[in-house]
Amino acid sequence: MLEEVRITGLGVIDDAVLEPSPGLTVVTGETGAGKTMVVTGLGLLFGGRGDPARVRPGADRATVEGRLRIDPGGHVAKQVDEAGGELDDDGRALVISRSVSAEGRSRAHAGGRAVPVSLLTYLADELVAIHGQADQQQLLKPARQRAALDRYAGAELSGVLADYQRAYQRHREVRGELTELTDRARERAQQADDLRSGLVEIDRLEPAQGEDEDLLAEQERLAHADALHTAATAAHEALVGDPSAGSDDGADAATLLTGATRALDGVSDHDAALAGLAARLAEAAYVIADVAAELASYAQSVEADPARLAAVQERRAELGRLIRAFGSRGDGAGDLAAVLAWSKEAAGRLAELDGDDDRLSALAAEEAALAAQADGLAVQLTELRKKAAERFAGAVSAELAALAMPHARLTVAITAASELGPYGRDEVEIRLAAHPGAPALPLHKGASGGELSRVMLAIEVVFAGADPVPTFVFDEVDAGVGGKAAVEVGRRLARLARLAQVVVVTHLPQVAAFADTHLVVAKSDDGSVTRSGVTRLDQGGRVRELSRMLAGLEDSEFGQAHAEELLGLAAAQRAELAKP
After folding, report:
1. Among 20, 21, 19, 26, which residue's Cα sits nearest to residue 514?
2. What are phi and psi of 398, to 5 degrees?
């Protein structure tokens, strides 16, 4: 809901502030006083085209700033937060602004943050519906017409629509998955063949964990068997000598250690330190003997085996092919552990691919069932919309008759789209035949500017809350009407104002009499509208302004009497509207 609007440098408005109230706010004033600039300013504020020709001569730019009361948990608050803006009053107030320079440069702000002008246009869908000859008219958009008709249709359609959207969304998901599986059938078949071939090769060789490392070690031993045997034998002889040589020269380590031990045996009892050294020599002799025994055993075990070496090399070559094919880690290196890991993953993936045929069959069956379900629900939606459209068209046509358009006929065209969409198969368009024999045309083509405002008023009154915007703005809604029809326009604006904030620019006293708040716009002596030129009228001021509108003379006794009569009549009708 609009709380305050400040307009500067726009047309005849120098700097003016308007404070619309809840309910019905009317704006009146002399011809050329700038009251229509109020609607122009609101259109600019909510993303309308920025015309530099509207910038007041001598001003650098035209600026409109608005303060609105919004739902802190609603969609608008979320969009402003995502744009980086901040809300006031614990998240309940939003300040937006729009400016257009004399050179045509346009800027927009929301919640203190610069934003694209398109964001203001987007927010307008949730905040305001402006009906004027040159302004945005949200209900002219087909999507808004369909949404409003759905809400007008009531709970039954709402329930069917919820069921339809669940089925439609699930159908899209299943169809997408089915399409993906079908499109990739050849790729999946090739992948399965490759996996199966790799697993067969791995199963044939039956590699064991760590086998590649063990084979490498065995190959090293077999390839150097002679050298290993010679080294072990030489080391053994160095430790304990060669018995077959028959030599007893005492050159081996064991003999030397024995001699050293004997040299200390006779005197070790006389000195503890020397006894300790003797013990260590004895221990060394044991170690030498143990190592010598192992070297002898090792030397006997190592022998050249060309056949085994060839077998090991062949096995390593086979495992190497596996590693290159399936065990690469991406850096050119690999090992058998990576091959075994690939084998495990490949087996799982192959099981998935082999199960795709069953999955395809199940998805195809589910897709067909969901398509039938969505199609059936779409048929129900069409039937419910047509019933609602018939009621709605009749109600609006009756309203138009009371608004001095007795021959106008409104219809709602519901046509089938080529395929299902998020809201069914229906394309909804409200059409108007302005007089007998005229073709039914879309609203913006079937009515003149003044007629269109009355048509939009009739539509909004019939929807009566189905359109969720909190604020409605009307300009030229009373163009071309007077007398009883003018009273009917005022009464319908007051009825709509029971459900939302309504701001209307009018030149008819019959309409102004229904206002909850009456603002008058007046020029100063220099021809501009300033802050002091926008006045909220009290009861006496309203009588004088309505007298001016009736007779052209605000001090006319006859005009004031007529004005008081109008105000009394409007007050009585407003009281009737307020009754439950």
Report:
1. 26
2. -65, -40
Q: How many residues does the chain have?
A: 580
- DSSP notation for 57-88: TT-SEEEEEEEEE--TTSHHHHHHHHTT---B
Does a structural domain hold residue 233?
yes
Q: With b meaning 16 or more CB within 10 Å and e meaning fewer, what string describes 267-304? A: ebeeeeeeeeebeebeeebeebeeebeebbebbeebee
Q: Whole-angstrom Cα distance, residue 144 to residue 128?
A: 13
Q: Confirm whether 278 is domain-assigned.
A: yes
- The predicted-structure confidence for 28-47, as pLDDT tens digits, reads as follows 888 776 777 888 888 888 88
User: What average pLDDT score do residues 110-122 get?
Assistant: 88
In a domain, 258, yes or no: yes
Q: Which domain holds residue 280?
A: 188-354
The answer to whether residue 484 sits within a structural domain is no
- Token pair, residue 258, equals 């024995």
DSSP states of 247-275 as a string?
A: --S--SHHHHHHHHHHHHHTTGGG-HHHH
d(CA 543, CA 369): 68
- Give the E-state strand segments of 342-487 in sequence order: 409-421, 424-433, 441-442, 471-475
> What is the spatial order of strands in the sheet that 534-536 belongs to?
128-131, 471-475, 501-505, 24-29, 517-521, 534-536
Please, where are the H alpha helices in 74-184? 75-82, 117-127, 142-153, 155-183
Residue 322 near residue 205, CB atoms below 8 Å = yes
- Residue from 51, 63, 50 nearest 15 by CA: 63
User: Shortest CA distance to 135 belongs to which of 54, 17, 23?
Assistant: 54
What is the Cα Rg of the chain in Å? 48
Nearest CA among 381, 389, 514 for reference residue 462: 389
Residue 113, helix vs strand vs coil: strand
359 versus 298: the higher-pLDDT residue is 298
Measured CA to CA in angstroms, residue 452 lies from 134, 449, 487 at distances of 11, 5, 18
Mean pLDDT, to the nearest integer, of 232-240?
85
Instruction: Flag whether the pTM goes above 0.85.
Output: no
Those residues with Cβ within 8 angstroms of residue 332's Cβ, 6 or more apart along the chain or in another chain: none
Integer Cα distance of 477 and 480 in angstroms: 9
| Residue 136 clears pLDDT 50, i.e. is over it | no
Is 330's pLDDT higher than 70? no
Q: Number of structural domains, the chain?
A: 1
Residue 302 above 70 pLDDT?
yes
